[in-house]
Amino acid sequence: MTVQREIPLDFSGVLAEDRGAVVCRSVLPGGVRVLTESMPDQRSVTVGYWVAVGSRDESPEGYGSTHFLEHLLFKGTPTRTAMDIASAFDRVGGESNAGTAKESTVYHAHVLDEDLPMAVEVLTDMVTSSLIDADELETERGVILEELAMDADDPVDVAHERLAAVLMDGHPLGRPIGGTPEAIRAVTREHVVAHYRHWYRPQELVITAAGNLDHDDVCRLVLDALERSGWDLAEGAAPAPRRTADAAGAGAVLAGTHTVAKQVEQANVIVGGQSLSTTDPDRFALGVMMSVLGGGMSSRLFQEIRERRGLAYSTYSFSAGYSDGGYFGLYAGCQPERVDEVAALMEAELERMAAAEVTAEELDRAHGQICGGTVLGMESTGARMSRLGRAELVTGEFVDLSASLARVRAVDAGRVRAVAARLAAGERARVVVGPA
After folding, report:
1. Which residues 6+ apart lie within 8 Å of 71 measured at CB?
2. Phi and psi dihedrals of 424, rounded to 5?
3. Predicted TM-score (pTM) above 0.85
4. What is the DSSP pairing of strand 33-38 with strand 205-211?
5. Coil, strand, or helix at residue 275?
6. Contact 73, 195 (CB under 8 A)
7. pLDDT in tens, 402-435
8. Which of the chain's termini has less CB crowding within 10 Å, N or C?
């Protein structure tokens, strides 16, 4: 079965059904959206609470608030201590966690199907009723600073953060997701609370779940928990509109070489430029292009830079997409004296893809790599839960596995060359992190 359909904001009903698995969506009072995928052969459920707010949405004085909330929502509510929240999942062998991105935040849990009511109750309490306690905030301030220090010790992380900054200069998407040490030290509880109250509202909340579940049961559990929270759940309230692209674009590219001195043995070099948004029609061709260029041991970068020349141990390509645009990068770790040579080789491979079509063998290999990885990834309840979240918040379209694979296989050599030429024509920047 192949399903690809838009998701109107007011839609409630079945989105897809195939071999016992059913994907459903409901809009609850207050504008809360619930999407589920039943997986009858599983014994577990993964549930996620999504809010379409990320690091790009913070005010200048509240920079770092989104990351702070990711930590603080686990630190207590009027009815649960931080220990209560942690032990609720530990005692049933479950897992809970959260993640902050540039355009969304998610709080999620993976539990046995029989423990789903507990997971819904606890996650709802966390999201709707966090105390944001002043003492806990100061404790987490130290934890977050240690987290940032850990990231700053990793030269590859530093290179990736610097690349985003120089490729999206002047745009909030160019800022680090976790904030900077200076911002984390400066942000106040008042800023964090204001950010929480502005974004954590019924119309902004999306709940997705996948596993051995019944959609109506999930909706009932969620609604009961929300009613106990005291949130204003007005009948007929509309969900918040999905994010649209900013007409101003995704900032400017600071072309040239940007060096970060760091006392490490190896130089980490990335060459990159601006790329495609998450809804660009060429995004599937971009995926195939990235697979051929630097997606594995048979890729062009790996074969040319590592296998033929022995200039790097690790080399790959990547891309990141957002509502306003995106960026791509070609990475290699090499000896400092080889930076110029390696960077030139990476750029040459990009130019070669823009100048001539990939071979039939390369295209077939990329199709197989992406499709195989997609199918294997979708065997977990967590991946299915995340797919529903992206469909609701990012694309506004549900595409089942068969349709996703068909879109990848439809990419031909001409489309790969066209998207490569599109990227190669843009301005580029080089980031080098390594010995001065």
Report:
1. 140, 143, 144
2. -65, -25
3. yes
4. parallel
5. strand
6. no
7. 999 999 999 999 999 999 999 999 999 999 999 9
8. C
Helix axes of 339-355 and 413-424: crossing angle, nearest 10 degrees: 130
Following DSSP, what letter does each residue of 307-376 receive, concatenated?
IIT---S-EEEEEEEETTEEEEEEEEEE-GGGHHHHHHHHHHHHHHHHHSPPPHHHHHHHHHHHHHHHHH
> Angle CA(362)–CA(316)–CA(328) in degrees, nearest 5?
95
Say if residues 70 and 99 touch (Cβ distance below 8 Å): yes
How far apart CA 379 and CA 219 sit, in angstroms, is 24
Q: Which of 58, 70, 136, 392 is catalytic?
A: 70
- Cβ contacts of residue 207 below 8 Å, gap of 6+? 32, 33, 34, 35, 47, 48, 49, 50, 218, 222
Instruction: Identify the weakest region by mean pLDDT among 2-11, 12-21, 59-68, 370-379.
Output: 12-21
Half-sphere exposure of 280 (CA within 13 A, CB side): 20
d(CA 248, CA 273): 17
pLDDT for residue 46 = 98
Q: What is the pLDDT of residue 40?
A: 93
| Domains present along the chain, CATH in parentheses | 10-229 (3.30.830.10), 256-434 (3.30.830.10)
* Average pLDDT of span 350-375: 98
Amino acid at 427: E
- Contact yes or no for 199/51 (Cβ under 8 A): yes
Please return the burial class of 218, using the count of CB atoms within 10 Å of its CB with bins 0-12, 13-18 and 19+: buried
- Give the closest residue to 213 by CA, choosing from 390, 39, 432: 39
What tokens does 267 get?
Answer: 């130089």
Backbone φ/ψ region at 281: left (φ over 0), alpha (ψ -120 to 50), beta: alpha
Of 251, 252, 425, give the one whose Cα is nearest residue 347: 425
**Three-class SS state of 381:** helix
Amino acid occupying residue 65: S
For residue 85, give the H/E element and its range: helix 82-90
CA distance 387 to 378: 9
265 is catalytic: no
Structure tokens at 16: 């897809």
Q: What is d(CA 101, CA 150) in angstroms, rounded to the nearest whole number? A: 18
What single-letter amino acid sits at 131? L
pLDDT at 249: 73
How far from 267 is each of 159, 273, 317, CA to CA, in Å? 10, 20, 17
